[in-house]
Amino acid sequence: MTVPLSRPARGALTLAPTHPSRSFRDRVDGLLARVGDTPLVRLRRILPDDIGPEVEVWAKLEWFNPGGSVKDRAALSMVLDAEERGLLEPGDTILDASSGNTGIAYAMVARARGYHLTLCLPANANAERKAVLAAYGVDVVETDPLAGSDGAIEVARRLAAEHPDRYVYLDQYNNDANWRAHFDTTGPEIWRDTGGRVTHWVAGLGTSGSFTGTTRYLRARNPDIQAISVQPDSPFHGLEGLKFMETSIVPGIYDPDLADQHLFAPTEEALELVRRLAAEEGLLAGLSSGAAVWGAIEVARRLDRGVVVTLFPDSGERYLSHGHVFGAGRRAHGR
């Protein structure tokens, strides 16, 4: 079955609890109680000289979640939501499409809650992701590598339609529990950890859940906070996890009107920033983090003062097989 949406009217949102991740921790224990409350660290060495001393740039390190990425938040939220609505029972099989990180998060949550998982995954997903999914015993349905995440979505939709009694299709791209996870946890954590000083919020677009939910929370706290979305600058890019919305299946949870500005990150510049994060800040971040920090720098350059916050979705450890990224970086810096 497909999990139906319960989309609130615009403006009908209420503030989440001020305690970060409380909505998770009140309902789970053990490993899953560690989802959320990730570190927020200030970036210094990677910033160009034209950014003034009264402009701060901070990054939220989502690989400190127990499943290794920001997608732990959404996966746990969607599973708990389906349980509470009576759509999931122990022994059921969850179905969804993913380019990797959500699949790994689902696998962790599913095993901890007593479910099976069938995941539609592009065949060219990297080796690290496939190895983790295999370790969790996930039933992987490989999809057309040329069709990317959109191809995986189409296959998941077909399987859900053909076998409604076999699968519970959570549909991360159209499930409001996805963005709600960030309204309930990511936004409150950023507000707390900046002492309410955040002025600009910058995040990449994949499902758009982290951008959507966090923006809605921060705007509820302070309507003057600027929200800036980042996506690749072309449909043919190397920034795994991000979508070029113009030519993609647009997620139902995506609201293009939320952003004050849309930025488009060039792949090579973003990947160079990934290498520099490791070499200069000691942060081994994933590929989409390069686009996020590129966007944060673009925003920071235009400010006389402000607190810019961005989000690094995962660690570079999931991309070490990409020799053109980290191998090139080691040679360039003489490592």
How large is the share of residues in beta strands?
15-25%
Strand order of the largest sheet: 1-2-10-7-8-9
Radius of gyration: 19 Å
Which architecture of the largest domain per CATH? 3-Layer(aba) Sandwich
Largest sheet: 6 strands, mixed
Number of strands: 10
Q: Which secondary-structure class do the elements indicate?
A: alpha/beta
Give the total of domains: 2
Please bin the fraction of helical residues.
25-40%
Please count the helical segments: 10
Description:
The chain has 335 residues and is α/β, with parallel strands linked by helices. Helix content is 37%, strand content 16%. It folds into two domains: 22-66 and 183-332, Rossmann fold; 71-174, 3-Layer(aba) Sandwich (Rossmann fold), CATH 3.40.50. It has helices at residues 22-25, 71-84, 101-113, 127-135, 148-162, 176-193, 209-221, 267-281, 287-300, 323-332, and strands at residues 40-43, 55-61, 93-97, 116-122, 139-143, 168-169, 200-204, 226-232, 261-265, 306-312. The chain has a six-stranded mixed beta sheet. Helix 4 links the parallel strand 4 (116-122) and strand 5. Helix 8 (267-281) packs across helix 9 (287-300) and helix 8 crosses helix 10.
